[in-house]
């Protein structure tokens, strides 16, 4: 059982702070939380989430345990129900102070209605809910994102006699996390029990899909970013898992998927590199599948045989810890079988060395050729500080160090911020270079969780080896309760041959805090001919801690000089220099997406005075810097605000750095700058070989006009023959520089230049229609960027005012709903 204080945002403040808050301007954005125990209360929260005036708000619905007959709510019916960012979280007690994540305790009963239909405009999170009694003709829980760049998280849910469908074909940038769900008893109706169509990525982790009479257990129609890991598909009609490259053309060509550590009978897909360790035709030994009990018997081949992944849930469908034993179980349930006891070393004191010390536990683990487990049981109150007199030995064998085992420790349960209590602190006192140093071979794995590390002049944690290392729920700098944890030189450093490490993960318990480093918060780099590649930095707090109101910046938030890394869903703020830096020709093929750079998550309080704290947390130089010939990277769907210099700065001569669908706003200088020289005028140089992103010309806006939320932009572009993606952005006000910025990304259109004289630019004009579902357009300004087929992206265009067209101003031609006054 996990404890989640409903009042985590409802702070009691001293009088002097109340006075200060009354003088502060509340931000228009907010996070609204509801403790819901009835259908009417649920509908009130849904109404708030659907209100266009709350387009920047996050509505979190804490559902008390019980059955909700939702047949009369706006969740039900084939009509599209559009919602702003919405979290539906089941499993709470009567005052929402304690939560047990188990979908069987929080039921959405559709009263026989044929469909539960949600169209999110922003991110959607559904967790800990059982859906049942959804009848014909659809038998369906349907999610259709209504805008670009939406993350859909469906976690720890149960779908009983109904299918779960996510359709992203009408928009772009839809990313699905389908994690730790149970799907069963779907009748035969011509469809599959789970259908995933048109998404940009699908992470399907730790699910149990069994006993469905539908056409297939799961159908995925895309080859883009599909991963199926740790799932059980058993006793389904047709394929348990079916991945098709393109379902629209009828050829049923198998699609690409990373397919590993699954239990199944029949599949259709094309396994890509990294797949394997599956158990085909291995009976998972459910306790009683016929009775709907899909828990695992102790002898199941799925027990302690899966692989930990950064997307996996922190608890199973019974609310138990997701890993009991040497490895995670496959499927949605975790058997209570612990096979780690013979290889466990327990730290029982804070001594620098000797029996019961952390140093001795590491020495013992290094002497064990097999995997070791280090736990903590130090007597006394939290926190316990291990103050080192000399450097610890490098760790050379596979090991899991679990500081959550220390009595008094509590992992983070907040969806934003961090409320963890880490009761073990490793202190370097400013005289020791490295805190923990892992130097295992490629066949080993390092797993660290629940510890605070500070005061090391080099790196708090150095990963120089291993494959699939896991760094989850730790803290580097900041505060543990009232105890200050000093910053490190670098918080976390990945180097040498560390490959495919996960720093953080999708679940709140996996979030790391990295604060107060004098150098880099997190660095990924090389030594000589050895490079750390293919790593993920996910969902961490970098430059702040706790409720995110404290500034504890690093020198640079994240610095990467290698290839194939992913940085997503992090808060990266308060850096003395850049938020994110990609440096050197080795920095290529990286993806930076869905991060808040220069903005914290939104924190609101309701007592003693309602107030929303500012999310202003600027990185002092650039929000994101690409330099020294870094090339062919993707920077997508980030919020890059409040930068002390440029929002995004691209220097050197690197090409192919794609900047797509980012919100870039409130930069001290330019939103996007190529070559570090400020505004680059459009020119006739068709090649610009020495400029970053080939100095691509930006589009020119000729006219921007339309109605309240639907409009058009007309413009032109001069460049070489190619097909260009023209991105449309809107901002509330003109930028302080001649060209614009992009507060809100609207959509993209195509502009083609079919021919151009040798060595010269060609010319084209375009007209792009767009919708603005989250903001009314009257009085705003538009700006554009261009992206060529190689990913080279221009600076922002000069901005132009949006004009309300006369048709819409006067409400004629059936345009009343689009009426807008200039």
UniProtKB/TrEMBL annotation:
Key word Signal present: yes
Where does the signal sequence lie? 1-31
Question: Has the keyword Signal been applied to this entry?
Answer: yes
* InterPro entries reported in the protein's UniProt record: Choice_anch_Q_dom, PbH1, Pectin_lyas_fold, Pectin_lyase_fold/virulence
The protein's UniProt keywords, in alphabetical order, are: Signal
- Domain of life where this protein originates: Bacteria
Cross-referenced Gene3D superfamilies: Single-stranded right-handed beta-helix, Pectin lyase-like
Instruction: Please name the NCBIfam families in this protein's record.
Output: choice_anch_Q
Q: What protein am I looking at?
A: Parallel beta helix pectate lyase-like protein
